[in-house]
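Appendix B. Extra example for self-study. Work through it before the problem class; the solution is given directly after the inputs so you can check yourself.
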Amino acid sequence: MVQVRVAAYPVNGIDEFLAGTRSDPASHCVNCSARHLSVCSALKPEDLLYTHQLSETVRIPAGETVFIAGEPARSVYTIKSGTLRLYRILPDGRRQIVGFIGAGDFLGLALAGRYSYSADAVDEVCACRIDRGLYMSFMSKRPHLLRRLHEVANQELILAHDHMVLLGRRSAEEKVAAFLLSLRERMRRLGTSMVTLALPMSRADLADYLGLTIETVCRVVSKLARQKILLVVPHGVRLLDPRRLEEIGAS
Amino acid sequence: MVQVRVAAYPVNGIDEFLAGTRSDPASHCVNCSARHLSVCSALKPEDLLYTHQLSETVRIPAGETVFIAGEPARSVYTIKSGTLRLYRILPDGRRQIVGFIGAGDFLGLALAGRYSYSADAVDEVCACRIDRGLYMSFMSKRPHLLRRLHEVANQELILAHDHMVLLGRRSAEEKVAAFLLSLRERMRRLGTSMVTLALPMSRADLADYLGLTIETVCRVVSKLARQKILLVVPHGVRLLDPRRLEEIGAS
DNA sequence: CGACCAATTGATCATACTCAACATCGGTGG
DNA sequence: CCACCGATGTTGAGTATGATCAATTGGTCG
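Solution. Structure tokens for the complete assembly:
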């Protein structure tokens, strides 16, 4: 009798199975670069074959708006690359950025039918889009995914609290230092622990995230540069003395 | 043949069934005053019989700490009455209150094993305590409850975003006005639409919630009183001109 | 009634904002 | 390839909002 390998997916191996489903394996969920970073890590191999049918890869040019607050939520997204800013606007135009999100992050998990904030691309973003209705029914049959999404929501809530502390109780210098340190921490979690931090967002974005003005952000960055704590480079900063930055931004 | 009434609970009616389980019906989940306000509204009648076994009613005196940030999360709570402040403290003692919670609110939903903020009672609080481990396993068998909890988490996230906008982009006057309006909104949802708002928390609490100092909160409240927009009363304010308050605190 | 803590008000100060000038970057077309 | 333009970033001067320091009033509870 011939020995047969038993796997979660039908035939002999995932590649052979996929060969029959779609032409481009690179765009397939199974091979997605963001898979292990995102909520998709909670999916089982057989789920991935299905999510692939539901999903569509979209490219969002720098500066483009993905959706605005109050709009009916039609889609959910998983970010594959690039950075988005999430924000709310007051009637008189003042803006507060509530978060920057990037590779692996999930967007649009609000259960209410409407987006509670606006989102636009800081630089060119590549994301995986799924119809929200389809995603909801997909999720309702998979408690492990709901559970995972709940974990993510709780993590976001903790980040929101961190940011409230920053906005309400920290000085301009502390705000900038804490932001840079959180960026470094994020890079670290994604593997790339470089001394140079990419800052794809403008000074205006930074200001609206930190509850400051453009000028104050500039001044603080310049001051840190003057103190040789960092070096300003195009679209980023190089950390020269992370230790001293931690002393300033200690949480 | 005799006609038999079929119900979700065994015998003829819930009261008869309960008579056999515990002596005090007032303390029973089925009769809980906070039931319809809280996540418990997602529970089915037969669930309630079980939660009653798990839960314990606790009284927390004014000023007492329920738990502190970083501590292992042993319990979850549903607030029946009173107000709690949730906050984080910076190493140097600065405090940011991330929220006030009251009747119907759920406390301790963090999935991570540790509390992410500290909580203490503003005034005397009456709450329903359940062991977190037991609650988790209870929940894992009830997807509708997990779903509901996820909704609650998302609602909290929206409130957190609101508060970020307030902390980062609004003036002292706007902060106080917006806070009072949100209090009124909360009362309205709970049914009591009075013109007098109870403020059980101190000016220090208010300041640490709004990202201001005690003195600034005082001055703004005095100014609003001088403008006949409100009247300061012991442990509260009476709104004289809600319309003008809305003009100031418009979101 | 008096002691203590919370709340209020005043005077002064400092941080971060506003307004303004100038520099730099990136893209476009001559 | 370089000159030009608009957008973005940086720096300076002066100001205002809210913080700090200090004194006083009011409320609560033994």
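Self-check: Residues 1-23 of chain A have pLDDT under 50 and may be disordered. If your reasoning did not lead you there, revisit section 3.
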